[in-house]
TrEMBL record:
<feature type="binding site">
    <location>
        <position position="64"/>
    </location>
    <ligand>
        <name>Zn(2+)</name>
    </ligand>
</feature>
<comment type="function">
    <text>Catalyzes the deamination of 5-methylthioadenosine and S-adenosyl-L-homocysteine into 5-methylthioinosine and S-inosyl-L-homocysteine, respectively. Is also able to deaminate adenosine.</text>
</comment>
<dbReference type="InterPro" id="IPR006680">
    <property type="entry name" value="Amidohydro-rel"/>
</dbReference>
<feature type="binding site">
    <location>
        <position position="214"/>
    </location>
    <ligand>
        <name>substrate</name>
    </ligand>
</feature>
<comment type="similarity">
    <text>Belongs to the metallo-dependent hydrolases superfamily. MTA/SAH deaminase family.</text>
</comment>
<feature type="binding site">
    <location>
        <position position="91"/>
    </location>
    <ligand>
        <name>substrate</name>
    </ligand>
</feature>
<feature type="binding site">
    <location>
        <position position="211"/>
    </location>
    <ligand>
        <name>Zn(2+)</name>
    </ligand>
</feature>
<feature type="binding site">
    <location>
        <position position="62"/>
    </location>
    <ligand>
        <name>Zn(2+)</name>
    </ligand>
</feature>
<dbReference type="GO" id="GO:0046872">
    <property type="term" value="F:metal ion binding"/>
</dbReference>
<dbReference type="InterPro" id="IPR011059">
    <property type="entry name" value="Metal-dep_hydrolase_composite"/>
</dbReference>
<feature type="binding site">
    <location>
        <position position="184"/>
    </location>
    <ligand>
        <name>substrate</name>
    </ligand>
</feature>
<dbReference type="Pfam" id="PF01979">
    <property type="entry name" value="Amidohydro_1"/>
</dbReference>
<dbReference type="InterPro" id="IPR032466">
    <property type="entry name" value="Metal_Hydrolase"/>
</dbReference>
<feature type="domain" description="Amidohydrolase-related">
    <location>
        <begin position="53"/>
        <end position="400"/>
    </location>
</feature>
<feature type="binding site">
    <location>
        <position position="299"/>
    </location>
    <ligand>
        <name>substrate</name>
    </ligand>
</feature>
<protein>
    <recommendedName>
        <fullName>5-methylthioadenosine/S-adenosylhomocysteine deaminase</fullName>
        <ecNumber>3.5.4.28</ecNumber>
        <ecNumber>3.5.4.31</ecNumber>
    </recommendedName>
</protein>
<keyword id="KW-0862">Zinc</keyword>
Length: 431
């Protein structure tokens, strides 16, 4: 057995206590062996955590990684106009190589900002999986399905691709990749297609992930047409189980919140995207109080405009207070749990905590900087003051992906060069 010892720092425990301890990792199996002050072992590899905090790797529970190529391309527009006028036309010009390169850029950004696992809904998923395999991260992936404006043959082909991808790539990248069936939303996939495809996914125990209640334009048509709320409709279709998770949940009412809690379906809060697109303020504290599993996601870099989960924690805490008019709402401990344990539970990975038996998905945060001084409350610092650039080391599945800010699994300069070239060519084609 090959071991990795992360030594000399403080450790964030699952109950949000911070203690001085070392962390011993089985680098072969990718799990945490021990957390404590009396670990005596001649480890094969060590990471220096002195002056730092060992914490769970952050889990970005909803994103579209390849959209890094469209970062800053179309800003300051409402969701519908942004999609129809800019994003969808540009995405129509994407090549498989574009998606590989854009995903690489997203993975590089996540490694450097302390994210070790993520959920990704996009296209050309084999390219996404290949990039994940090379970079060393953990992910739940799926092909996004849209049936509107397609004939039956085209719609069915899109659904078949998503289901086939989910079957083929589950367990890829030495088990670091899992999959889901990913219809885009309840308004972009027709009812008959949803009903049949979700039933087919259930036959193979494939989880379902979709956008829900992001804007009132998503909610009102369903209420007007069906006289029921969107998540009630989703429940009728069998899309809300404890293995499923939805993105956004901005415009949910009390009955829908209770339904999510009863079914055990996770909700991924994307505060930066929701603010930037003026989608609204999700009732996060009400969901937490009801027992809903709430995670955090960045959404795509085209609507955020970065993949830094530390930024997302700060946004979630601030927006939660503004939404309720209560400065105690969505407190620091809650958002840190959302970005770690909550997101991991939502997307179904055994990460998000530093304890024996969990996946060794870890980061070491450097505390020796002016904006993290003094250290009255490190959990508060994680929510309100830390930045992705404070991450010193990143570990996923027991493997060191970044040591002392140097990414070991990717050629950073080459990734940046390819991304610039592909983004320029993509925009030229789109325009």
């Amino acid at each position: 057995m090959s071991t990795l010892l992360i030594e000399g720092g403080q450790v964030l425990l699952p109950d949000m206590r911070v203690v001085e301890a070392d962390v011993l990792v089985d680098a072969d199996e990718g799990g945490i062996l021990d957390v404590g002050t009396d670990i005596e072992v001649d480890a094969d590899e060590t990471l220096d955590a002195s002056g730092g905090l060992v914490m769970p790797g952050l889990v970005n529970a909803h994103c579209h990684a390849a959209m890094t190529l469209l970062r800053g391309y179309a800003d300051d527009k409402p969701l519908d106009a942004w999609l129809q006028e800019d994003i969808w036309p540009a995405e129509a010009e994407l090549t498989a190589e574009d998606i590989h390169v854009g995903t690489e850029l997203g993975l590089l950004e996540m490694i450097k900002s302390g994210t070790t696992a993520f959920a990704d809904m996009y296209f050309d998923v084999p390219e996404v999986v290949d990039a994940i395999d090379e970079a060393g991260l953990r992910a739940r992936v799926g092909h996004g399905v849209v049936t509107v404006a397609k004939d039956d043959e085209g719609a069915q082909a899109d659904i078949d691709e998503s289901l086939d991808i989910a079957r083929e790539f589950d367990g890829a990248a030495d088990g670091r990749v899992t999959t889901a069936y990913m219809p885009h939303s309840l308004t972009t996939v027709g009812e008959s297609y949803l009903r049949e495809s979700v039933a087919e996914a259930r036959e193979d125990d494939i989880p379902v992930h979709f956008h829900a209640n992001e804007t009132t334009d998503e909610v009102d048509p369903i209420v007007d047409e069906r006289d029921e709320r969107p998540l009630e409709y989703a429940d009728d279709l069998g899309m809300l189980t404890h293995e499923d998770f939805v993105a956004h949940g901005v415009h949910v009412d009390g009955a829908e919140i209770d339904l999510l809690a009863t079914r055990g379906t996770g909700v991924v809060h994307c505060p930066a995207s929701n603010m930037k697109l003026a989608s609204g303020m999700a009732p996060v504290q009400r969901m937490l109080d009801a027992g809903v599993t709430v995670g955090l996601g960045t959404d795509g870099a085209a609507s955020n405009n970065d993949l830094d989960m530390f930024d997302e924690m700060r946004d979630a805490a601030m927006l939660g207070k503004l939404a309720t008019g209560n400065a105690s709402a969505v407190d620091a401990e809650s958002v840190v749990q959302m970005a770690t344990q909550g997101s991991a539970d939502a997307i179904g990975v055994q990460s998000g905590v530093v304890e024996p038996g969990a996946n060794a998905d870890l980061v070491v945060l450097d505390l020796d900087s002016p904006h993290l001084t003094p250290a009255h409350d490190l959990v508060s610092h994680l929510a309100y003051a830390a930045r992705g650039s404070d991450v010193r080391h990143t570990v996923c599945d027991g493997q060191v992906l970044m040591r002392d800010r140097e990414v070991l699994t990717m050629d950073e300069s080459a990734v940046l060069t390819r991304a610039r070239d592909h983004a320029t060519a993509l925009v030229e084609r789109a325009e």
